Amino acid sequence: MDPSVSNASYPVLYSFRRCPYAMRARMSLMAADIDVELREVVLRDKPAAMLEASPKGTVPVLVLPDSTVIDESLEIMVWALAENDPHEWLNPESGTLDDMLVLIAQNDGPFKTNLDRYKYASRYEGADPDFHREQGEKILNRLDGRLAVGKYLFGARPALADFAIAPFIRQFARTDQARFDALPFVHLHRWLETMLQSPFFNGVMAKYAQWHDGDKPVFLKAAEIT
């Protein structure tokens, strides 16, 4: 898409750089070669336009040119890849899309619950960060076993599940990097390093200033990444 065209013809993505949900949405849009107007959000100062589009107030929020709103990250991923999937993220080498969605649900459910109570224990009354770290590590152990038989979660090339899950493993690792690095999960370590070196991840991690109404549009363009 030509950024000289009116930004009304572009989807608008409200995003927060470090949010793992927003990371995976951005990566899928880039993989699908869908350019978007990027509006970087500061979570303590959410813009009125975002809240009008999605009153629940979480990122990411994708507003399409026809005013359709998609405000769940996995739904954004699947929508984008249904539009265009040149890297076959929806068609894994091993298994099916439904199989990937089951694994993603385990990440978004039990793993994310333990991650939050490990990383942000003070926000949850009675949360024991050590207990939740251990529970998270049990899930990581299962992923490591899966990766022992394939370079990626569903075969020899990355697919939807890899990009949907990797941002959360990154967040878990960065909570106590030294401890994570000492875990005996050689396949998981190798996979995460590979994922974090991918052009999709690096391409969507540039820093942007907080968006304010009236700012000159900023575009996240797939051609500049891939």
Automatic annotation (TrEMBL):
Membrane-spanning ranges: none
CDD domains xrefs: GST_C_5, GST_N_Omega_like
One GO CC annotation: cytoplasm
Keyword hit for Transferase: yes
Occurrences of domain GST C-terminal (ranges): 91-218
Boundaries of every GST N-terminal domain copy: 9-88
GO molecular function: transferase activity
Keywords: Transferase
Database matches in Pfam families: GST_C_2, GST_N_3
Entries under InterPro entries matching the protein: Glutathione-S-Trfase_C-like, Glutathione-S-Trfase_C_sf, Glutathione_S-Trfase, Glutathione_S-Trfase_N, GST_Omega/HSP26, Thioredoxin-like_sf
UniProt-recorded name of the protein: Glutathione S-transferase
Organism: Thalassospira profundimaris
